[in-house]
Amino acid sequence: MSIVKLNTGETDIAALMQGIGAKARAAATVLATAPAKQKDAALLAAAMCIRANVDDILAANELDVADAKKNSLTPAMIDRLALDTKRVEAIAKALEEIAALADPVGSKIAEWDRPNGLHIERVRVPLGVIGIIYESRPNVTADAGALCLKAGNAAVLRGGSEASRSNKAIHASLVEGIIASNLPEASIQLVPVTDRGAVGEMLKGLGGNLDVIVPRGGKSLVARVQEEARVPVFAHLEGVCHVYVDGEADLDMAREIVLNAKLRRTGICGSAETLLVDEACAATHLAPLVKALLDAGCEVRGDEAAQKADGRVKPATEEDWYTEYLDAIIAVRVVKGVGAAIAHIRKYGSSHTEAIVTANRKTADRFFAEVDSAILLHNASTQFADGGEFGMGAEIGIATGKFHARGPVGVEQLTSFKYLVRGNGQVRP
Fold it and tell me: How far apart are CA 29 and CA 184, in angstroms?
């Protein structure tokens, strides 16, 4: 991709981004009517290229990780950034899984007949051009690009500077697959500069060529996008996720779920940040759960009851209940039953993902009905808050808003709809 330059030699970000937007719109026009087989062929070819280029991808990632360590990025950020052969293979498999999904474009959502003989259908159509602004995780380059393409959308990807080499290497493989399938090269574009001005141009909408923005990253990034974007946004500010252990929870199950929810990967948005324990089982459950976390290397910040349960527990502050640690740290509080747990989540949660551990289905049903988060789980880890685990192949992110898309944003969520009305000469009186 050529970069427009000013006479001063500096990159003209506005001109560059306008060009990207125009190319994306042109590509979106083609993708909107592209046959499913052609889109799937591009994704499968891209998966093959990812595998063939694994050494180049890992070499690029090694340089990114080295710089991240020099720049003192947090362990959570480095975990999100780092790739190995297993993670690269997972990227390739995700592309294949997305290709295997049913094509949402043109599918009927509903149809009905009117008394006047009109037949009406509501069918899925692409959104158009989708901008993704993200940090750290290079797999997003493949996941987001592939999901957009599958749903007939063009994608404009702006990754973080910390993953610039990794993103470019992965994007090159995607482009290989796209070209091999005779789709427009601009179907998935990677912004070639890390200048923050590029983000500003995307927030303005690229001259009317950007239809939706999806941010994935830290609180400051997402907040900026939500505050400044002139186009619709699929976003969540943060993942302050809770696990509530009810008085009727099996201790062994609760222990396994809590440890997995917190520690499987601490740097993902579905990682549990707060553990709530029902006072009805605190005498039997609190100390073992806290001990298990501490023994596993997790720092525990708790209320008075949690501190009494284990001398290693640090006092929790009011701020801790609001905090997305993205690290091996968890806040623990004893609450008076499911009602108090729900009240805590309403006050401190971010509407992302919450889990309840209980043998009582009625209690779980109440939790499901009264907690207003995008994803709710009964007797399962919050780490399942992932599009791949929902059978979506992958997801662009977890949307916590209430308009259009909520929860994992997969191929269906990257479509809108239109109405097709068929008649036989009807006119309105």
Answer: 10
Mean pLDDT throughout 252-260?
A: 98
pLDDT of residue 8: 37
Distance (Å, rounded) from C-alpha 261 to C-alpha 265?
8
Enumerate residues 6+ apart whose C-beta is below 8 A from 318: none
- In this prediction, residue 10 carries a pLDDT of 44
Q: How far apart are CA 150 and CA 137, in angstroms?
A: 21
- Nearby residues of 350 by Cβ (< 8 Å), 6 or more positions away: 236, 237, 238, 239, 240, 241, 324, 400
β 154-158/188-190 pair status: parallel
Contact 409, 398 (CB under 8 A): yes
What b/e readout covers 326-352, taking b as 16+ CB neighbours within 10 angstroms? bbbbbbbbbbeebebbbebbeebbbbb
Query: Does residue 185 carry a pLDDT above 60?
Result: yes
Residue 356 near residue 246, CB atoms below 8 Å: yes
pLDDT at 121: 97
Q: How far apart are the first and last CA of the chain?
A: 56
Task: Considering only residues 314 and 8, tell me which one the structure prediction assigns the higher pLDDT.
Answer: 314
Closest CA to 338 of 236, 245, 231, 235: 245
Q: Domains of the chain (ranges plus CATH)?
A: 13-234+409-420 (3.40.605.10), 241-389 (3.40.309.10)
Q: Which of 152, 169, 171 is nearest to 24 (CA)?
A: 152
How far is residue 371's CA from residue 382's CA, in Å, rounded to a whole number? 15
Contact between residue 284 and residue 251 where contact means Cβ atoms under 8 Å apart: yes
What would the pLDDT profile of 376-394 be if each residue is shown by its tens digit? 999 999 999 987 788 776 7
Query: d(Cα 148, Cα 411) in Å, to the nearest integer?
Result: 7
C-alpha distance from residue 77 to each of 43, 190, 218, 277, 371 (Å): 28, 21, 10, 29, 29
- Which amino acid belongs to residue 290? V
Angle at the Cα of 131 (from 17 to 187), degrees rounded to 5?
80
Q: Are 330 and 301 in contact (CB under 8 A)?
A: yes
The mean pLDDT value of the chain amounts to 93
Contact at 8 Å (CB) between 276 and 245? yes
CB 185 within 8 A of CB 178: yes
* CA pair distance 194, 177, nearest whole angstrom: 25
